[in-house]
């Protein structure tokens, strides 16, 4: 598997948690803007380590860096501040990074069967 910058940091969140936040927004008396995020960053390397270890595999035997996939201008860590959503909607993500990755791996394996 060829990937780009393994040190790129992202705020990985579960779509189901985000949908719950959207539903909570729709329950408000007046419309407003909210940031929905976990507030945590994990690198692409972290994702690889977690996904492959979940399967009992060494990610370094399967992943290579391909410079074609490295963005010429990396945006820096992408992380959101969901403090307003937490305060006003009572929302917080339920699925953590490790659980999200295991759910993704399980879903991918299920599609292969």
Describe the fold and architecture.
With 113 residues, the protein is mostly helical. The chain has one domain (2-112): UDP-galactose 4-epimerase, domain 1 (Alpha-Beta Complex). 41% of the residues lie in helices and 7% in strands. The chain has a two-stranded parallel sheet with strand order 1-4. A two-stranded antiparallel sheet has the order 2-3. The two termini are 20 Å apart. The mean pLDDT is 95.
Write the layout of secondary structure elements.
Blueprint: E1 2-3, E2 9-10, H1 15-26, E3 42-43, H2 44-54, E4 64-65, H3 83-89, H4 97-112
Parallel strand pairs: 1-4
Antiparallel strand pairs: 2-3
Helix pairs in contact: 2-4
Helix content: 40-55%
| Measured distance between first and last alpha carbons | 20 Å
Number of helices: 4
Strand order of the largest sheet: 1-4
Relevant terms:
113 residues, mainly alpha
At a glance:
With 113 residues, the protein is mostly helical. The chain has helices spanning 15-26, 44-54, 83-89, 97-112; strands at 2-3, 9-10, 42-43, 64-65.
């Amino acid at each position: 598997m060829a990937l780009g910058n393994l040190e790129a940091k992202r705020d990985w969140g579960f779509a189901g948690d985000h949908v719950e936040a959207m539903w909570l927004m729709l329950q408000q008396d007046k419309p407003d803007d909210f940031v929905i995020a976990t507030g945590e960053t994990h690198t692409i390397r972290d994702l690889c380590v977690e996904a492959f270890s979940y399967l009992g595999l060494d990610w370094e035997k399967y992943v290579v860096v391909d410079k074609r996939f490295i963005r010429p201008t990396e945006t820096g860590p992408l992380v959101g501040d969901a403090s307003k959503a937490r305060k006003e909607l009572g929302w917080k993500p339920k699925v953590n990074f490790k659980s999200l990755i295991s759910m993704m791996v399980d879903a991918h394996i299920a599609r292969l069967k």
